[in-house]
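Q: Could you write out the predicted structure for this multi-component system? I'm mainly interested in how the pieces pack against one another.
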Amino acid sequence: MQDLVHSLHPLERKVIPFLKSSILFEELVEKTKLQEAECIRAVQWLENKEVLKIKTDIKEEIILGSLGKKYLQEKLPERRLLEQLKKKKLTLQEIDVEEGEKNIAIGELKKKAAISMGKEIELTEIGKKLLEKEFLEEKFLKVLPKETKDFTDEEKLAFENLKKRKEIIQIETIKTKTILLTELGKKLLKEKLDFDLIETLSPEMLKDQSWKGKNFRKYDVKINVPKTYGGRRQPYMEFLNKIKLQLVQLGFKEMNGPLIETEFYNFDVLFQPQDHPARTWTDTYHLKHPTHGKLPNDLVVNRVKNAHEEGGRTGSTGWGYKWDPEIARQLMPRAHGTAVSARQMVKGIEIPCKYFTISRVYRPDVLDATHLIEFNQLDGFVTDPSISFRTLLGMLKLFAIEIAGAEDVKFFADYYPFTEPSVQISAKHPQLGWVELGGAGIFRPEITQPLNIDTPVMAWGLGIDRLAMFKLGIKDIRYLFSQDLKWLREPRII
Amino acid sequence: MPTIDISLKDISKLIGKEVTRENLEQEALLWVKGEIDGEDGDTLKIDCKESNRPDLWSTEGMARALSPFYTKERGIRKYQAQPSEVYIHVDRTVDDVRPFITAAVITDLTITEDLLKQLIQLQEKVSMTFGRKRKTVGLGIYDNDKITAPLTYKAYKPTELKYIPLGFTKEMTLKEVLEKHPKGIEYAHLLKGHERYPVIIDKNNIVASMPPITNSETTGKVTEKTKNLFLEVTGTNLEDCKVALNVMACALVDRGGKVHEVTIDYGKERIVTPDFTPKKIKVKFEDIERLTGLKLTLKELKELLERFCYDVKKAKDCLEVEYPSFRQDILHPVDVIEDILISYGFNNIEPVIPKIATRGELSEFEMFCESLRNALPGLGAQELLNFTLTNKETLFKKMNIEEYGCVEIANPVSSRWSSIRSFILPSLMEFLENNKTQEYPQQIYEVGEIVIIDEKAETGTQTVKHLSWALADKEANYTKAKQVLDFILSGLGLKYETIDEENPSFIAGRCAKIIINEKKYGIIGEINPVVLKNFSLEFPVCAFELNVNELYKLRKA
């Protein structure tokens, strides 16, 4: 009991003195002089503590409608008609009842067999008797308001009849709350409640030590509280950071490049001929503004040009066309992550080296649950004199195991314009099954030789988005760039 | 990447062994870099990833390449063209517009509906992909019995000559064909700006075709009744024309046809097509070993290459190999080495994990961005990742500011994604707009890339990282924004000032530029209700945006 007493909120303590074995809620509000909302809260808390029970009754009450009120004073139209007919027979036109009520009045009297209809309307014998007698409906209107459950049989009849007519009566549902004290409540009433409980501990109390010797109000620690949201990192960003960390652990160095690139880095350095179908408008975005950039120094440009035209000094035949620096100067949003590798190789590298980049790339497509218009690619390259196709397969296998958690790998021949030999890797993921993990190859000599790189260069790109979707538990690829705050706020640990 | 239809029954007949979807999928297709993309009864749709090998883009070509896999056939398949009197005179007028032509006559062919389908499929794929949509190579097929040799390949003025183009009934001038015929309209750009258009005309002055637009109705219609075919390839590069002709001719020979030579008279020199002489390339043994990482004996190499339709000629200091005349994809010995590897089987190679000692390293700038990203969740802010693609309406109009230069896409798929953002705040505003039904306060941020125009820069632009933060709440105000800004800038040990700024995205008098050492690093303020309305927001928003690249420079200095 003492625990209960000490857990009472000030509002509850205000309510308790006015409780009795049964009291209407409205009465309680009036007596406590509390706001209705405060009183409800207090009563609900007390109900949770089993001090009282709230009994809700719903009653249906019939009250007078706007016409009903009028008819109570001016009599029902059928009564007025009846009285007019007492004096003489009347034609339809002669009846002196409001237009809207004329037909109702005639109809009602006909139902009661009080009139007979001919050219003129006249009273029947029953009608004459009715002149002296009150209609059921008239009696009914006088007893209103009345609860439906208390109706007599006659009243029920009158009610059914009037219900069909407009605005004479109204049905009202009234909820009443009755507060009933429980046994515990009755005991609580006998307790002394007017002692001092500390509601909020204030800095002043701490300072003057006034909290000493007083009791703190006990809280309901089981209470449900409103939700709050912490700030969080974007889940896909967290996923990408993990991948970065894994690559750094494998000895890779991060490289970057601009979002807008010249075709030179997107394609030309990579030995993709200028009329290659992948360079057309349907496969890549082009810019309206700005349109052209600059090429690097002539030495590099000329070597790339020679490689395209006749293979340079690589022993290759080249593509055998006239290379156009104007096309190479055209700007476009980065089409693939290999452009970042191209830039890094032109900038200069040490041998051996291992590079990676997570880069945003753009593709003309329609955005939907399976296609993005811009997305991140994970690419990189490795160079060392020891590199061969076997070590390329070894590196890919390592990626599959370390990054994708793969159990097994399979290799397929593939075609990429920049690499020869080229390979595609499929990885067997424990839950996803076989997934295409990425593509790789050894850069063609027409790419590396013009850049003065004499060692073989393994280039690789991994498709990590399917893995990300699996890790984040999403089916819609757009959620990698989620616009859904509710989803972003959900607790999850990547 | 062409996709071709292949009937299993048909390819089995051509190879002489049963070909099934299973045995194709398990191994054979890997040889030709093919991937099954669909199935309709007996017909498979196959993606040919090898976009430089038109010889593979037909059932005949696939059958030829796969034959050594299923049978004992090895090395280069022999093709022989019969000598003939057919002759094409090339007039110098074509030099400026479409200088090269190659041709062949095919006889003894039983033309069936299926064969016609295959023929048209191959013609289409070769012209579209290998011929760059007919620009560099275009193919024509005629009823040989309706044309009379010798022929002339000559360019005529647009109104000088008339003929009935394929599918039409009336004669038209060359100009009219470009204006009215569907293929004329589609390919007119290839002849645009030229004074004369190329035409193939026969001994009796009957026009056979107007390459690369369309054949004539009289000679260019091939049906099941056609007995003998005349093939012609025109283009801008003779080598490509030869390859395309050989691809077509070999396919028809594989179908039982006999091929006959055509002499092309270029005036200065004469050539005879088709020429099936194999091409040669030398591959050094040490290059094979270095690139494959495999130690292969000469015998093994010979077997691997012959299974891939090569002939091995000499093997002293290096391997001298011959490959079929229709292959154009071998530019360098590495291309042969890849074929050796495919023939060996990628999955028969034991991978070796490379042991290359390098030091892993994150980009220092990226790490700086990460430390900013990690600072904000502690204040209750949710990190976002938004697209950099947007549109000018969102960037400028909805933000209530004057338009300035930004990156614009010339060929957007949707106008919704037609520009690249020049600041991040509009992305945050859109995010708030998308989340109006979620609980407030909504505190969000992004550290991401934006692009600004810089004509002097190498790429005409600068890719810059910005940090943008916003709070939407009934109590969002300047103070709250500045508290967060201060948390970041003080955290970086920077002394800054906020000085009155007028910017219509923000409420006048409640907006400031962020100044460090007299230089602007960003903007802060309460968002203008006009902007809130543009994004249909019903809560006040305060926000700021900072240039992270510039902050990084300060930090480094």
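A: Regarding packing and overall arrangement: The first helix of chain B runs from residue 8 to 15.
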